[in-house]
Amino acid sequence: MKTVQKIEFHTGSKEELLPGFTDEFPYIASRVELDKYTGRYVPWHWHRAVEIFYMESGSLEYHTPHGRIEFPAGSGGMVNANVLHMTRVLSQTEKNIQLLHIFDASLLGGEQGSRIERQYIAPVVTAPQIEIIPVFPGNAPQDCILERILESLHLPNDEFGYEMKLREALSEIWLMLFELSRPMLAQGGEANRNNDKIKLMMIYIHEHYPEKISIRELAAAAYLSERECFRVFHDYLHMTPVEYIKSYRLQKASQMLEKGQEPITEICHACGLGSSSYFGKVFREYAGCTPLEYRRKWQDSDI
To answer: Is 0.90 surpassed by the pTM of this model?
Structure first.
């Protein structure tokens, strides 16, 4: 199980990059140390893989376009394929550790169009109403799912037959999650084309953040009007396009401060944040400290 302290993305996108994820065996397991993430949160992103998780300690809040759910230690769940989501640490008094299975659904369903894929996999991964399936302790069926998730995360990966045992465990967990999701599946849901539109606009921002970005250009990237652009950002990310652009620029500035020694003036211009005085003001609002204090905090400490 790989220890993770930051999130990586495909170039020019907010689709998460999954190091070690291969077509040969599309699976990785991670132990995520959430307190070591910049700002103690994971920004909006998505991945084509399915995510099954268990909160080992601390407390975490998941945000999706349709709401938010809190997950304390001992709880878990599944994030569906291609779902936009962000997470934020809630516990300030203990370490926040999350254990993850991340895998392509083909690992369980096999070839597209197979009976298993049609009957058990596709109904879930193609259901737009299923963003997250939460699992909380306190009742027998969900306790069983949590126990099985935790057991499967600790399978010895150097033992003979590991891949087969892992796939068997994930298949068992999937069936239990399928049963748990039946009420959501019964509600039905329609695919929303704006899901792709918001991703196109996010990608445009990630490719052009050092430059001046107009709302007209941003909307055009997704073939929308300016009014529709504002509505889609509000409905999906619960913020305006301008707020998201500023937030993304500050994320990039934080990364530069953590890793390098570039002058502050160089960082603010490289991230599209204008003058040093403006950068200092908005960065203090974002991080609660000056850029130099932030650099010292992350480069000179063990957090």
So the answer is: no
